Amino acid sequence: MRPPARPSSARAPASLREPRMQPMKPSAMSKRKLKESSAESAECISQVQKILRERFCQHCAAGKLFGMEQQYRHLLELLKRTTVHGESNSALVIGPRGSGKSALLNHVLKDLRETEQVRENLLEVHLNGLLQTNDKVALKEITRQLQLENVVGDKVFGSFAENLAFLLEALRKGDRTSSCPILFVLDEFDLFVHHKNQTLLYNLFDISQSAQTPVTVIGLTCRQDILELLEKRVKSRFSHRQIYLMNSFDFKQYLKIFKKQLSLPAEFPNESFAQKWNNNVQHLSEDKTVQAVLQNLFHHSKDLRSLHSLLMLASSAVTVHHPLLTAADLQEASRQHSTDSKANIVHGLSVLEICLIIAMKHLNEVYDGEPFNFQMVYNEFQKFIHRKAHSMYNFEKPVVMKAFEHLLQLELVQPLERPAARAQREFLLMRLLLDSSQIMDALQVYPNCPTDVKQWAASSLSWL
Fold first, then answer.
1. What's the DSSP call for residue 461?
2. What is the distance between the alpha carbons of residues 266 and 271, in angstroms, rounded to a whole number?
3. Residues 199, 139: Cα–Cα separation, whole Å
4. Is 0.70 surpassed by the pTM of this model?
5. How far apart are alpha carbons 393 and 385 in whole angstroms?
6. Of 73, 136, 129, 80, whose CA–CA distance to 104 is shortest?
7. Nearest 5°: phi and psi at 432?
8. What is the pLDDT of residue 460?
9. Could you tell me the pLDDT band of residue 219, with boundaries at 50, 70 and 90?
10. Which secondary structure element, helix H or strand E, spans residue 137, and what is its range?
11. What angle do CA 265, 97, 441 make, to 5 degrees?
12. What is the DSSP letter of 372?
């Protein structure tokens, strides 16, 4: 007889029981791996930010040149003839702001410095018309950049030409071919034209034409009529070489520029991340939302400086937890990029100042954009106050005048001409620098704006 079978519910002895599965605790090794991977991704993001910021910065030659290969070859050949063969030259690089004049010159100089013969020879002097406002300041800056302060010492010179000739003489060694070539870069060239008698330009061009130290003068300007501003004696010494930069690419090329500017280089340390990033950039360029954002910017301004500032805003959203750019990032960057700064100023004004702006808006509508003065604005404001006396406080005239002066300081209002010393402030003619749509848009988001004020702004005519 077999013993009866054990019921299934009966428990097996402890020794025969299967061990229960305990929940696995993360080991120290897996924690370490997690830390290392997060540190690695943080390092990748940091390198991406660094590469993109260098590329979008206008003062470095890390980015690529687009659509100016011919101009690049022309300028490179010109500077090579100076640095290698000791020729003197002069040229003007002309193009609208943001067209890449400084970027072109920086690329050419970067490539020149990589040549050993040039790196040891070439001396550079960079002047800017915004900083060197007269010839005396410019000469001091030339002396400083050529490191000739000790040579000049306390010497007194009879003229500008004599001083400049002395500086160049101090740099000479042997004949023309063995002398150290000097490159003068004049940024904002059109501002140097307004210096007295154009002495600096005359002397620089004169030296570049004569058989002295090899000198090349490169001017950067956005004025198309720059030659008309030069004096006859200066123009006769200029070589009339002009390099024009125009943004002539279409939207397809603009999209290619967008991809190239955001793509990571092949030598990026983390290849897998670079591939993932570049694939994401390719998808972004095909996205309809992103194309709409870029199309809007392209029609507003074709210069690459605007594209760089948009991409700089978008790339600042990249973090360890958000490692890849999205269409939403570009939309937000576009919104920030196109924000109306004057409308933002209106958001911070007092209700009284808002009322004065609305009064000016109505004066513009009534008098068809004719200039107004404070007294007219004050009278308009008083009409509104008498109409809405129950809801608006009537400020005294000096207080209203103070508010009006604050608008003047914020440059929301501009005087038509420079006021005379004894002119009465109440009767100076002014012009409003905001249009009707800007005022209405600002009022929509103005915090706690009184309803009566909004209604007054929306009415087609002022209270008569």
1. S
2. 8
3. 11
4. no
5. 8
6. 73
7. -85, 130
8. 60
9. very high
10. helix 135-145
11. 95
12. B
